[in-house]
Amino acid sequence: MTTKTLKVQLVKGLIGTRQDHRATVKGLGLRRVNSIAELQDTPSVRGMINKVSYLVKVVA
Q1: Burial 10-38, CB ≥16 within 10 A → b, else e
Q2: Using one digit for the tens of pLDDT, what is the confidence trace for 21-34?
Q3: CA distances from 40 to 12, 14, 19, 28 (A)
Q4: What domains are there in the chain, each with its CATH number?
């Protein structure tokens, strides 16, 4: 069985954002604007994406 993955891209900079949102973006493995991380599709990852949805975009 193959596990589903999500590709997440950081589309907005982190300056001026809340500290816990910056930590969430770092936890997703995103470093700079336009960086892409491929993550497992789990409820915890979806919750992190939902928390910082104004900063990231799901690519694929």
Answers
A1: beeebeeeeeeeeebbeebebeeeeeebe
A2: 999 999 999 999 99
A3: 22, 23, 24, 10
A4: 5-58 (3.30.1390.20)
